[in-house]
Amino acid sequence: MSxxxxxxxxxxxxxxxxxxxxxxxxxxxxxxxxxxxxxRNKEATVQPAAKPGIERTPxxxxxxxxxxxxxxxxxxxxLDMKDSIGTEVDSGKCSRDGTxxxxxQAHSGAHSMKxxxxxxxxxxxxxxxxxxxxxxxSYYYSAWFFIPEHVQVGVFWNIFQFKSNIKGxxxxxxxxxxxxxxxxxMMIVPVWKGPIPGPHEGDGVDxxxxxxxKTIVPxxxxxxxxxxxxxxxxxxxxxxxxxxxxxxxxxxxxxxxxPGGIQNWSVNxxxxxxxxxxxxxxxxxxxxxxxxxxx
Length: 295
Ligand SMILES: [Ca+2]
Fold this sequence. Notes:
It is built from 2 helices and 16 strands. By secondary structure, the protein is mainly beta. The protein is globular and about 45 Å long.
């Protein structure tokens, strides 16, 4: 009997050592890739991500994560994540039918994500992708949106946001709102919503809108939003916003997160007092990349 068990006793510690080594290396690799990310990214270009992309084609550029919803569910949002906590963050009267994915509209393939809110009171369907922004690296964040009918915004309508977490606290720093101009057209308005002073050094705590007149949001037609974010807990970050390839905002020397905090990102149907009510928003072909994708 002892001859049978002796090899097992020798092999078992080796297996445990190998397993432990793999785990530590994987974690350290991710952490080490995060250090000095801002220093490496002096302009709106970035180094390739430490982790290879899920799928890459030359026309799409170096995509590090994407969701085309063609799985028929929201599983792409959880790729490489240890758990799904914080991926769907819904509040108030947010409705997601079944899997959260529909064939009613699609930018690619047959599926898109469908988010519906009843905004008589503040309501939000928020879809977070946290893994890549948590690395601290600079990325381009993009998605296609489809608003099936004209919407009049009563209080606010947030469809794209960068938040920051620290010690159990979550704060909204930058967001893209839909608002109406004087003619009633829907427009994308970048907003600094920092819960701490900013966005520039010397600024106080304020809610600052950056309205633009370059382009409107189309009705019942897919449109593309892309944002470059160089993260900064101080005042050396950068944010660039494009709609359908048109630059709406380009600000340098800005803050994007809490000092010592983690950045995260979501696309949303999150608003208050929208007409018609309920309000439907479709989202498809969402991506995080190290180069600008464009529409
Ligand atoms: Ca699709």
